[in-house]
Amino acid sequence: MPREYHVAIAGATGAVGEEFRKLLEERSFPLASVRLLASSRSQGKKLRFRGDSVPVEVMTPSSFEGCDIAFFSAGASRSREFAPAAVAAGSVVIDNSSAFRMEPDVPLVIPEINPEDIAKHRGIIANPNCSTIIALMAIAPLRALGKLRRIVVSTYQAASGAGAQAMHELLEQSRAYLDGRPVVPKVFPHPIAFNLFSHNTPVGSDGYNEEERKMILESRKILHDDSLRVTATCIRVPILRAHAESINVEFEGTRPPTSLIRETLFRSPGIELADDVEHGRFPMPIEATSRDAVLVGRIREDASNENAIEMFVCGDQILKGAALNGFQIALKWAEGQAQ
Amino acid sequence: MPREYHVAIAGATGAVGEEFRKLLEERSFPLASVRLLASSRSQGKKLRFRGDSVPVEVMTPSSFEGCDIAFFSAGASRSREFAPAAVAAGSVVIDNSSAFRMEPDVPLVIPEINPEDIAKHRGIIANPNCSTIIALMAIAPLRALGKLRRIVVSTYQAASGAGAQAMHELLEQSRAYLDGRPVVPKVFPHPIAFNLFSHNTPVGSDGYNEEERKMILESRKILHDDSLRVTATCIRVPILRAHAESINVEFEGTRPPTSLIRETLFRSPGIELADDVEHGRFPMPIEATSRDAVLVGRIREDASNENAIEMFVCGDQILKGAALNGFQIALKWAEGQAQ
After folding, report:
1. B5 and B32 Cβ atoms separated by less than 8 Å
2. Could you tell me the domains of chain B?
3. Do B277 and A203 touch (CB under 8 A)?
4. What is the percent of chain A with per-residue pLDDT over 70, rounded to a whole number?
5. Which of A113, A168, A244, A279 could form a disulfide with A140 if both were Cys (CB 3.0 to 4.6 A apart)?
6. Do strands A69-72 and A92-95 pair parallel, antiparallel, or not at all (unpaired)?
7. Cβ distance of A284 and B190 shorter than 8 Å
8. For A205-226, what is each residue's pLDDT tens digit?
């Protein structure tokens, strides 16, 4: 009989934490117990889990006693503060924050792409940034068709990336705008209703914001390719929970035919082709929302570079962009334990 | 005393036609009279113009008798049908549709970029596509700093590009979504509220849609540079009337320093720098709306290509993307007449 695991969710009341809970509740997983952890703001709260009412506990360093797996999704500073305690208690930490992603001894994993890195962990496995996961799901399979040289990405990122409150803010501001009331930004620094803006992370001296830098550095780490050239422009758009990305991929040599790219992506797990010109089908947030698969479409030869192709992708930011990817890491890790 | 001109607006009741009327009403122009033309659907309608109530006339081939300038913004098929009659009547046609843009003897003009082409007209001067104008306003001045090699664009296009009804649809669908009512697309083929989709123009056998093809071909024509490599991905987003574009520009040789790019754009007419990292300023639709200037920001060296730079632009689709550019063409044309 396979082992069953005691699981903690650190940040259980956030948008991603809620999705972790749902995944553990609804999908097949060798689960012994679940512990819901959050900050003191959620003290006294209870959440449903498989028919039970589970109290939300205030996270402390001793919250992880007896845990086998700890999903962290409470922000980078909480991860830095509590993940070491979870590891010390014998838990494997699957961290959705940016805290440890670029640490050399922390694997950064998309299970469809580099599952073999999971075994290298020393307590912490990092979940990549949402935009990176969604882009790489479509980009990584192309390596089978030729070495990649350069990637140019522009993102259309949903409010959910900034949490449940940001999604609420988009809806509230939209209603205010429609009712002729003033739009007052609280979560985001700028109005998000009927507006878009450069991703609200600090901009470095190189002019890239942190979200863009994540895409550049994380892509190289996940693909184990330090020579890969990546540039990104990350933009927040008034969409609820699915990110879209316009991606230009240049190969080192001659690009593969688009028919072969479609075939390769069609056969890639976690990808769904949404690329039907005749029926006007292409990736859209309303179709990608609440779906596991990353949708890929608009695949075409780049008219400006004979070695490049263009494509457009869309994926649920909370699912494959965060909780689902972490859940899949846990499944792969558990498979490894069972062997 | 300078001459004054009799002006007709063909498509006076549309979003762009209304803006032509406002520009003629509010700005300095040597205007003798204005004639408002539309389809029979607007018969009987009257519109205010400088205190007068002007009847909307049904457009016929004889509508242009005595006109000096005819602004056309009633769609490509109406332009093809009626522009020849206007030219035959002695009017110069400034056509906002795609009908004649790529005809070899029709100048395609952005007055800040290629005003000299105006004089080459044989009756028709074409106003470029909105996305092309907004992108080129920021791209063209860079030619002073080095030969351009390749441009990679991803657009974030507002509903207004599809007309006043499309803007109305965005608002109506947003309200329906917020009220929990079904979202029923009428103008656009897909829901636009809290969604985005590939530009709703036909896709060719090369995989590019018409909007993207316009950006590629019109850019080369306006810049008089057939060797310029351009690729574009055109996406409609839930924004009312300002387009945004993520633009990667590669130079033939070494890229100029970003300080010089900023200086050059700062001095370029029709451009406003919105590129202040310290104060979190970058181009946003809510700032570009109802503004003449195209906002440019996020200017940085491309981390993936030593000859390329990245930037982000935003401009009012109805103003500089359409009516204002046409109005400026008329002004330049009138200046030429006066000489």
Report:
1. yes
2. 5-128+322-338 (3.40.50.720), 132-317 (3.30.360.10)
3. yes
4. 99
5. A113
6. parallel
7. yes
8. 999 999 999 999 999 999 999 9
Of A67, A121, A130, A234, catalytic: A130
Q: What is the pLDDT of residue B280?
A: 86
Q: In which band, very low, low, confident or very high, does the pLDDT at A165 lie, cut at 50, 70 and 90?
A: very high
List of chain A residues whose C-beta atoms are within 8 Å of the C-beta of residue B150: 304-305
Set of chain B residues whose Cβ sits within 8 Å of the Cβ of A235: 156, 244, 246, 312
Which of A167, A197, A273, A299 best probes binding to B when mutated, by most B CB atoms within 10 angstroms?
A: A197
pLDDT digits (tens, 9 = 90+) for B157-171: 999 999 999 999 999
Q: What pLDDT score does A336 carry?
A: 92
Tell whether A100 lies on the interface with B, counting CB pairs under 8 A: no
Tell me if B231 and A240 make a contact (CB, 8 A cut-off): no
Size of interface A-B (CB pairs under 8 A): 158
The per-residue pLDDT for range A42-67, each reduced to its tens digit, is 999 999 999 999 999 999 999 999 99
Active site residue B67: no
Please name the residues in contact with A67: beta carbons below 8 A apart, sequence gap of 6 or more: A6, A7, A8, A35, A86, A89, A90, A91
Q: Report how far residue B91's alpha carbon sits from residue B82's, in angstroms, rounded to the nearest whole number.
A: 12
The pLDDT mean for chain A works out to 97
Exposed/middle/buried for residue A221 (C-beta within 10 Å: 0-12, 13-18, 19+): buried
Q: What is the H or E stretch that residue B173 is in?
A: helix B164-178
**Averaged pLDDT, B310-339:** 96
B contact residues 162-191, partner A, Cβ 8 Å cutoff: 170-171, 174-175, 178, 189-191
With a cut of 70, say whether residue B85 has pLDDT above it: yes
How is residue B66 written in tokens?
A: 């005595």
Quote the minimal CA–CA distance from B19 to chain A in Å: 21
Which pairing describes strands B242-251 and B235-236: parallel, antiparallel, or unpaired?
A: unpaired
Residue type, B88: A
The nearest CA of chain A is from the CA of B51 a distance in Å of 28
User: Using a CB-CB distance cutoff of 8 angstroms, which residues of chain A are in contact with residue B189?
Assistant: 280
What is this model's ipTM? Answer: 0.96
Task: List b or e across A265-283, with b for residues whose CB sees 16 or more CB atoms inside 10 angstroms.
Answer: beebebbbbbbebeeebbb
Cβ pair A259, A214 in contact under 8 A: no
Is A130 considered catalytic here?
yes
